[in-house]
UniProtKB/TrEMBL annotation:
GO terms for molecular function: adenosine deaminase activity; metal ion binding. This is adenosine deaminase. Belongs to the metallo-dependent hydrolases superfamily. Adenosine and AMP deaminases family. ADGF subfamily. It is found in: Secreted. Residues 1-24 form the signal peptide. The lineage of its organism: Eukaryota, Metazoa, Chordata, Craniata, Vertebrata. Its cofactor is Zn(2+). Pfam families: A_deaminase_N (PF08451). Residues 29-95 form the Adenosine/AMP deaminase N-terminal domain. Keywords: Hydrolase, Metal-binding, Secreted, Signal. GO terms for cellular component: extracellular space. It comes from Poecilia latipinna (sailfin molly). InterPro entries: A_deaminase_N (IPR013659), ADGF (IPR006331), Ado/ade_deaminase (IPR006330), Metal_Hydrolase (IPR032466). GO terms for biological process: adenosine catabolic process; blood vessel endothelial cell differentiation; inosine biosynthetic process; neutrophil differentiation.
């Protein structure tokens, strides 16, 4: 037996040496060199970590392995079901403490948590509510009972309604449901994109009557900045249509007033938090408008950009992509800045749905020279002729059915993850 083993070793060792010398066996030294080269090409790969940073990196890697080995893999669950588990995650708690940089392209109607709107704003004096025929709500601040209108026949003072109901906690929870998408049965209540889009837009419309009240808007902006700052976000770009704001006496304020208010509140916030970099607004209009209306909006945005260069970041078009008009349909209006030699950066979002001519046409408008970034541009990966640009790939329920996912194409490219409609999901 021993003789047989010795004979085997004497035969195999020279053979292994011969294979290695003839490049038939991987060289461990070359393998280590290759791994170090790959690591150096990763983001931050050339940084020398301190002892404390190495310890943090090791802990984060350990947390990651533990969560990947767990019975429930959270990314595989619907967010509404995974949310309470995510909040208990060691990685989540660690990420909460880390600086986030910038929050870009945030919708103005989802800047602040729905809980703050309900438990703070709806308890203010003179706040009326109306329950609509399509199972939604409207809010309005008024010294007198508002007049009936087509979608609201009967307005009730919230203070009186709460007194009659007697269950503030339960009633507030029902109001929060009107302002968010959260449900215990997401797959049953949102069987397709049409249903969830309808609820999504209803939530924004319901919140509008609260947010556009001038005294509320001032507090709303500051509260939004505080919530972002608590999460270590240091810069904000807010997408807003600059809706008209109203006072209790019926006075209506225009877009210039709103921009001045935003500028004033941001300046005050920076005084209180000097480490905060600042905030700007991306003016937006809905793609349901006509070409002439969009042209007028672009012209107005150009002027507002001149008047408020430190406040206005640029321009965007909003609204559901597949059921609306493409960005290409508005090319005449969107070409105005280039024709006039004016500065109006574009921050469009498109390519958020399945492959279709509509999506491809929307992506083509990216060729505009003033294009800055392209949110939700998942399909850009399949149009390689387009110039390089900042691309955000959406990962939420409105786009759960990604027919042609871009991930195989964009793996290895710089990417960033951020919130867009967090309050609508009751998330941070």
């Amino acid at each position: 037996m021993v003789n047989s083993l010795c004979l085997t070793l004497l035969t195999c060792v020279p053979l292994l040496w011969l294979v290695r010398e003839s490049a038939g066996m991987p060289d461990p030294a070359r393998r280590d060199l290759l791994m170090r080269e790959e690591a150096s090409r990763q983001t931050g790969g050339l940084l020398a970590l301190t002892a404390a940073e190495q310890k943090l990196d090791a802990n984060l890697h350990r947390f990651k392995e533990q969560e990947m080995a767990a019975t429930l893999f959270l990314p595989a669950l619907h967010f509404f079901k995974a949310k309470p588990l995510i909040e208990k995650s060691a990685i989540y708690r660690l990420l909460q403490k880390m600086p986030k940089g910038a929050a870009l392209h945030i919708h103005s109607s989802s800047l602040v948590s729905a809980e703050w709107l309900v438990k703070n704003v709806t308890y203010r004096p003179h706040c009326y509510i109306c329950f609509t025929w399509d199972n939604s709500v409207r809010f309005l601040f008024s010294t007198l009972q508002p007049f009936p209108r087509w979608d609201c026949f009967y307005w009730q003072l919230l203070e009186s309604l709460r007194a009659r109901i007697g269950d503030n906690a339960g009633f507030d929870s029902s109001l929060i449901q009107h302002l968010t998408l959260f449900t215990e049965n997401p797959d049953g209540e949102y069987p397709n994109q049409d249903v969830v889009w309808e609820k999504f837009e209803k939530a924004f419309i319901a919140a509008a009557g609260l947010i556009t009240h001038a005294p509320v808007l001032r507090d709303y902006i500051y509260q939004g900045l505080e919530e972002l700052h608590r999460d270590n976000v240091m810069y904000l770009e807010l997408r807003s249509g600059l809706s008209r704001t109203y006072e209790l006496d019926g006075t209506i304020h225009d877009k210039i007033w709103t921009l001045k208010l935003f500028q004033e509140v941001t300046s005050k916030f920076k005084q209180n938090y000097p480490e905060f970099f600042g905030a700007r607004i991306i003016i937006s209009v809905h793609r349901a408008l006509s070409v002439s209306e969009v042209k007028a909006a672009v012209t107005e945005a150009i002027q507002l950009k001149k008047d408020f260069p430190d406040v206005v970041a640029g321009f965007d078009m909003v609204g559901r992509e597949n059921s609306g008009r493409t960005l290409w349909d508005f090319r005449e209006a969107l070409s105005l800045p280039a024709e006039l030699g004016a500065s109006l950066p574009y921050f469009f979002h498109a390519g958020e749905t399945g492959q279709s001519p509509y999506v491809r046409e929307s992506l083509k408008i990216k060729m505009q020279p003033q294009m800055q970034s392209f949110g939700l541009g998942g399909k850009k990966a399949f149009l390689p002729c387009l110039p390089e640009l900042a691309v955000a790939v959406s990962c939420f329920r409105l786009t759960a059915k990604v027919v042609a996912p871009p991930h195989p194409v964009v793996i290895g490219l710089p990417a960033a993850t951020q919130r867009r409609y967090s309050p609508a999901w009751i998330s941070e």
